[in-house]
Write a structure and sequence with these properties.
This protein has eight helices and no strands. The chain is mainly alpha-helical. The protein has one domain.
């Protein structure tokens, strides 16, 4: 069921509007954005996330090149980027700055889940928090493709997504409570 959740725009809209969730499980919040980032740092307002810190604490990002092996166009640790590139190179190569910005925002705003049944909560929370401007909206499909790859790739024991450990992916366990489904009318 979770091998790849590359949803069409219509399916994403349906999920954002009316899906319910079970409770996601909580794991220790190890910070976000990999070893070099911080969970309170702001990767920029282009994703629609809130400004809650300084870009000074974030690892450097390079201009988008379309080749994750030669450039890192996200504010992620070098280790996190290398892991994601090794696992999901073709989809990461298509994930432009708007796409990686959504991923950074989801980590910063703690909208990621680590329970398959709660993916709809993650999509709803990330949509409400990080996909508010046209740049991010234009890259939403690429993000879903990347997340589908991260979910479906061979993982270390205990990881929900490949690279969770290296990237220090934060799972708060309360995404469905913070972003409940809107009751059907």
């Amino acid at each position: 069921m979770l091998r790849r959740h590359a949803l069409s725009g219509f399916a994403v809209l349906a999920v954002l509007v009316g899906s319910g969730c079970s409770s996601d499980s909580k794991t220790e919040d190890k910070g976000s954005l990999g070893a070099a980032g911080s969970s309170g740092a702001d990767a920029g307002s282009a994703t629609g996330g809130s400004a809650s810190g300084s870009d000074a604490a974030l690892p450097a990002a390079q201009p988008y090149s379309g080749d994750c092996k030669t450039a890192k166009w996200a504010h992620l640790s070098d280790e996190c980027w290398a892991c994601m590139c090794a696992a999901c190179e073709p989809t990461l190569d298509l994930c432009k700055e708007g796409c990686t910005g959504i991923f950074e925002c989801a980590q910063r705003e703690h909208t990621l889940v680590n329970v398959g049944a709660d993916i709809t909560c993650e999509i709803r929370a990330t949509g409400a928090t990080c996909i508010q401007d046209p740049v991010a909206q234009a890259q939403a499909t690429q993000l879903l493709n990347l997340d589908g790859c991260l979910l479906g790739a061979k993982k270390d024991p205990g990881e929900f997504r490949v690279c969770d450990t290296v990237c220090k992916t934060p799972y708060t366990g309360d995404v469905c409570q913070r972003f409940p489904a809107t009751p059907a009318m």
